[in-house]
Amino acid sequence: MSYQVDENGFYGRYGGAYVPEVLYPNVEELRVNYQSILQDPDFQKELEQLLKLYVGRETPLYPSHFLSAKHGAAIFLKREDLCHSGSHKINNTIGQVLVAKRLGKTRIVAETGAGSHGVATAMACALLKLPCTVYMGEVDMERQAPNVARMKLLGAEVVPASSGSKTLKDATNEAFRDWINHLTNTFYVIGSVVGPHPYPDMVAQFQSVISKELLGQVPSLTGQSYPDYVIACVGGGSNAAGSFYHFLDHSEVSLIAAEAAGKGLDSGFSAAATFLGKEGILHGSKTKFMQTPEGQILEAHSVSAGLDYPGIGPLHAYLHDCKRVRFVPVTDCQALDAGSLLSENEGIIPAIESAHALAALDQVRFKSTDVVVVCLSGRGGKDLETYSQYSSSKK
Amino acid sequence: MNQLTENRLNNIFKNRKKKISIYLTAGYPNLADTIDLIAILEKAGVDFIEIGIPFSDSVMDGPVILNSHKIALENGMTPEILFDQLAIIRERITIPLILMGSMNPVYQFGFERFCQRCSRAGVDGLLLPDLPLSDFKLHYQNYYRLNNLAPIFMVTPQTSRERLTAIDAAGEGFLYAVSSSSTTGSSNKMADSSDYFEKLKSLNLKNPVAVGFNINTKNDVEFVHGYTDAAIIGSAFIREIEKGIDEKRIREFIDGLIN
Asked: Which pTM does this prediction carry?
């Protein structure tokens, strides 16, 4: 069974390129060229150097004594939070901005939820000297104000998306509209494994540096070739796609995706698209979306702005259907508790997104010999206010 | 070769008269307005009408049409309600009607069932901007044909000659030429698109060409008519009916565009 995208841009029944004709030439230009650009030795050398010297890769695989004792297995944290920019997002933005330059584009547009992708895009653009416009939901701009300030300091223009739920979905709509209106010079740097083919595959390839490093780190730390479990959070699913990538064909590795259940799957305030979603078409691909019976897209809810998206990447919808990945729902409170515990006991403040992956540990029964990797996709500096509000609400 | 013999769209384009078309959003400004609007527009001399199916996340649209979608959804518009309204209006009018909208609501309705309902309600064409040509050919072409529904596709200034030919071959009724690469209701000028309109004219396309997006004035309409068969007005009309339907005002608006 192949988990790679097929020649038509599909993972099983999911994926494709459902874009209006106006975007067809741009998407087609990227589709025709992306593989040869990514495989070009000069491109690879430039990307590798930047990942090493600028991003700070490789990121450590850290054995968490606290989590290992708590869960009775060897638990390791893949420290993507130590990447320059504070999350895994920069693995992808450096790659895509380099691709944009190869295609002769002179302007970058991006969407952002929590601001992590926006900051990572703004950094890549500052470094590689391209002007950058980032769309961000008005609600998210409030709850992630420090990231807005960062993007502005980095020279990016931050434009509020004020339609709909004023979160990631609406920021994505606005970024698409900007792209439609500036086709000839603009490249859209999509932040997750979503969007029209070839974006999901291209982003997965850029993020696959995570699992590629694990292929070397796991044996040297544990003596076994592969981990028994890899756990990551999913919104659109980019850090999960990158963490799973090199293990997809190794069925002995159990893969677990933590989805944001918000206030609970049945609460009406959730973002767990594999549980609550139905096959549909939005933002260029056919995948699972939370929607009404009439096909209107529902607003997602999660305490984590980065997971607050009503859909999931087509690769993940496929991995879900063929049961290669087990999806577990994690509520806001479970994530905040797990993040607070790690902060107190290990001295690591995780992004609330990543805290969902930590909370998923509670939903698995491990054997004492198990080697478990949790992708700590980002750091929690941006989430201090949410953490402190939560902790004072519990007192 | 046109496959659809009894299609109203194909019939109206048999004469060479330059045509005018209006886009409206179903269920806007009020849920039941669609029926009256269509009747008024026919009386005012509009040659064919596009009816937008409102969608929560239409990426092709600018602020004016987006807002009309939002209000139409708040009014409770659904495809089911729209088909009921269209069945009523079809008894009263003879001009062609085209449904237009994002794929997802059609996909959830069931594509085949949607086409059947179109046919029963007297709809003549269907335009789904985010339906790829490849998917159309692979999965859906037959549903259009069986229901006498013209598949309408968009082309843009960036569409290559080769692809224009392929789209023209697959499409029927007319080709929807987007005046510039933009969302609806942008401020781009018609005159900047003259090379592109010239190219469309020179290609000897099988289908008539109708131009839409950013057409606001009589001058715009005349400019478009100089090259192609029809002009489609969307955002400017939606702005016009923002505060409700006034038959006299609508007739003046249409008169102002064509006379």
From this structure: 0.96
Chain B residues touching chain A at CB-CB below 8 Å: 55-57, 59-60, 62, 66, 70, 73, 78-79, 102-109, 129-132, 134-135, 153-156, 158-160, 163, 167, 178, 181-183, 186
> Which residues in chain A are closer than 8 Å to B167, comparing Cβ atoms?
21
Collect all residues with Cβ–Cβ distance below 8 Å to A124 and sequence separation of at least 6. Answer: A90, A93, A94, A96, A97, A189
Residues of A in contact with B59 (CB under 8 A): 20, 173, 176-177, 180, 283
Long-range contact pairs involving B83-86 (C-beta distance under 8 Å, separation at least 24): B83/B117, B83/B118, B83/B120, B83/B121, B85/B26, B85/B32, B85/B34, B85/B35, B86/B34, B86/B51, B86/B121, B86/B122, B86/B123
Q: What is the pLDDT of residues B185-227, one digit of tens each?
A: 888 888 889 999 999 999 999 999 999 999 999 999 999 999 9
Q: Which of B18, B48, B20 is CA-nearest to residue B229?
A: B18
The per-residue pLDDT of chain B, averaged, comes to 94
Domain ranges of chain B: 19-258
Is pLDDT at B245 greater than 80 in this prediction?
A: yes
Contacts of A183 in chain B (CB under 8 A): 158, 181
Task: State the DSSP string of A298-356.
Answer: PPP--SSGGG--SB--HHHHHHHHTTSEEEEEEEHHHHHHHHHHHHHHHS--B-HHHHH
A344, A276 contact by CB (below 8 A): no
> Which CATH code of 1.10.3720.10, 3.30.1490.20, 3.40.50.1100, 3.20.20.210 fits the domain covering A11-50+89-202?
3.40.50.1100
Answer yes or no: are the C-beta atoms of A297 and A282 closer than 8 Å. Answer: yes
Domain locations in chain A as residue ranges:
11-50+89-202, 56-87+208-394
Q: What is the CATH number of domain B19-258?
A: 3.20.20.70
> What digits encode the pLDDT tens for the residues A40-85?
999 999 999 999 999 999 999 999 999 999 999 999 999 999 999 9
Q: Is B214 left (phi over 0), alpha (psi -120 to 50) or beta?
A: left
The token pair at A318 is 């496929």
**Measured between CA atoms, how close is B99 to chain A, in angstroms?**
16
Q: Which of B33, B47, B61, B124 is catalytic?
A: B61
Of residues A359 and B2, more confidently modeled = A359
Residue of A nearest to B136 (CA): A18
Q: What confidence tens digit (pLDDT) does each residue in B98-136 have?
A: 999 999 999 999 999 999 999 999 999 999 999 999 999
Q: Does domain A56-87+208-394 have CATH number 3.40.50.1100?
A: yes
Q: Could you give the CA distance from residue B87 to residue A139 in angstroms, rounded to a whole number?
A: 42
Minimal C-alpha gap between B105 and chain A (Å) = 4
For residue A130, what pLDDT band results from cuts at 50, 70 and 90? very high
| Residues A177-199 pLDDT 10s | 999 999 999 999 999 999 999 99
Chain A partners within 8 Å of B153 (Cβ): 21
Question: Taking a C-beta distance cutoff of 8 angstroms, is the pair B190, B224 a contact?
Answer: yes
pLDDT digits (tens, 9 = 90+) for A298-323: 999 999 988 989 999 999 999 999 99
Token code pair at residue A316: 């993940």
B50 catalytic? Reply is: yes
The reply to whether A56-87+208-394 shares the fold of A11-50+89-202 is yes
Q: What's the confidence (pLDDT) of residue B3?
A: 58
Residue B1 has pLDDT above 70, yes or no: no
